[in-house]
Amino acid sequence: MFACQDCSKVYNNNESLRKHCYRHHSVTQKPPPKTVKCEKCDYCGTSEEAYRKHRKRAHQEATEATGKDGYTCSVCAQQLPSIKAYVKHHSNVHENAKAVIEEKIFANETEFMAWKNSLRADNCVEFVTQYTWSTTTSKAKMMLCNRSGFCRRSGSGLRAPKISIRSEKDCTAFLTVHIYNDGRVKVEYCMEHVGHSLEMARLRMSEEEKAEISRYLEDGHETTWIIEKIRDKNSGNRLMYVTAQAVDYLRSCLHIDSGRLHTNDMASVAEAVRLDGVVDENDENAAPAWRNYFSYSPASDSSGTSFSLGLQTQEQAEWLKEFGNKGVCLDATHNSTRYSFKLITMMVLDNRQKGRPVAHFFCKEENEANLITFFNGVKDRCDIPLMPEVIMTDDAIQYWTAWIKVFGEQSTRKLLCSWHIAKNWGMKAKDLIVDANIRKEVLTSLHKLARLPDEASFRQHLAELLTRMDVARCEDFKKYFFDNYIKKEDRLMSWAPFNRRRSVVNTNMALERFHGKLKSHILKKSENRRLDFVLYGLEKFCRNLVRDVIVQDTLKTRHRQYRLYQTHKSHRKAMATYAQTQFEGIECTDQEGVYRVKSLTRPNLFHFVRQIKKCSCPYE
């Protein structure tokens, strides 16, 4: 082996080292070549391999190509020149009776391959080709155990290295295969392993095993299902140790569920946009097809500047028309593709309070201009005016300004996600309030304030809280809280609990949960995904959601619908409670639809309840 003195990289021959020094270390003159002189003539070779070939051609010496600079004994560290010498060393010096070299002859290559495949199953061994050579009568190759040898690592070492299949020791198992011109195959081999244990999990998957997994993938099965099926079926072979990473790798190799139309990602996306909604030109009666993509703008440079692309299926557009007037949630997420694009999602909540994504938008920056492009694209695809009661976002002001420029303010209320607000309060309190006890007291009061549904109680508690901040000397946090959440009335109304009574949403958790499911189930927790793969995954998610909605509506299922379950539970309790005392506990008032209800726990307390709409649940 030849090592560079500057960077310590190792090469198999001196010529490779010379080229490396000349290219990477600004060496103006190449180092003088290493010469190997022949003991029987005046020949001077540049490497040991050239000298070996010279001895074989000029002096008819029987030499064996090593392909590496010898073998190191894993027991005594002695250097051996060849694999055969290494096997004999273990047999003679270390008295390993199984370290013997055997020989077989096969009539043809088919018989040899059948025998070699049987070794894999019976002896738990995999052989890989180390090097090849040829003569006038045959072609030969040296095959070593796949666990034998050392791992050459590259890179700067910033990431944790992957676990190598190599054992970091030389193994005695080998095959020397000679395929003669007449078709016969001669094999010299040793089946004894040294320096590592026999582990089925360390074997490579065969083509038959890959084909079995591929069949399940082509049938459309999920990774988890495939792993469970294969492990139940193959309890004693290599497929028992198959991992989700291996299955997903085969999925990517077969381009299953990838949406790939071109090897170049951006060219594939452009082709998908071009083919979107294309109908048969020869069919005069064909109706215009729905176009899933909108507001497409290709990137102007490699960083993705000016790129934008919207996605909305026909089912999502119908959901927006049906549920959009109750409320709309907006949020963005990052790391959904290998590019620095933001994925902005618009979501509505159905009658079961379950989130349904109704539009997606990829863009470089989450600014007002891109949001206006997104909203205009959605507006053009809706046949009816979109006037939601509330619009909920995080603390980014550009969502609201872009919304009112496209749809108009009308009667829509802007609400901030209460979870994001509480998170911001906690982060700022940690920075601005040093005393832990005071910080805990202030945050507790803030959380109580954010849950007061009555406006009078809210404003009274707010004034008391500001006074307590003065007494506790929390001037910095009070200034932050007043300037960002109280000073402007519209800002106060965006988070005040009395302004969001009867609103369909209080947090953006349904949207956050969708983004989490996107990254874990669709993207498989990988940030290095092609954009066409993400688009295909979003469309597939929508198709599956459509089927789930049909099943729930048809079977009237209530599984995993907590809020609906609580509503029905309260209704049943009220019906049972007031069944016998309906006229005593509930009284009509002079106002239509307003009732006077007696408290169950406090006899002298009465509640005035207004009927908003007739209950349509099955427990009426």
From TrEMBL:
<dbReference type="InterPro" id="IPR052797">
    <property type="entry name" value="RegFact_GeneExpr_CellDeath"/>
</dbReference>
<dbReference type="GO" id="GO:0008270">
    <property type="term" value="F:zinc ion binding"/>
</dbReference>
<protein>
    <submittedName>
        <fullName>C2H2-type domain-containing protein</fullName>
    </submittedName>
</protein>
<keyword id="KW-0862">Zinc</keyword>
<keyword id="KW-0863">Zinc-finger</keyword>
<dbReference type="InterPro" id="IPR048324">
    <property type="entry name" value="ZSWIM1-3_RNaseH-like"/>
</dbReference>
<dbReference type="InterPro" id="IPR013087">
    <property type="entry name" value="Znf_C2H2_type"/>
</dbReference>
<keyword id="KW-0479">Metal-binding</keyword>
<feature type="domain" description="C2H2-type">
    <location>
        <begin position="2"/>
        <end position="30"/>
    </location>
</feature>
<feature type="domain" description="C2H2-type">
    <location>
        <begin position="71"/>
        <end position="99"/>
    </location>
</feature>
<dbReference type="Pfam" id="PF21056">
    <property type="entry name" value="ZSWIM1-3_RNaseH-like"/>
</dbReference>
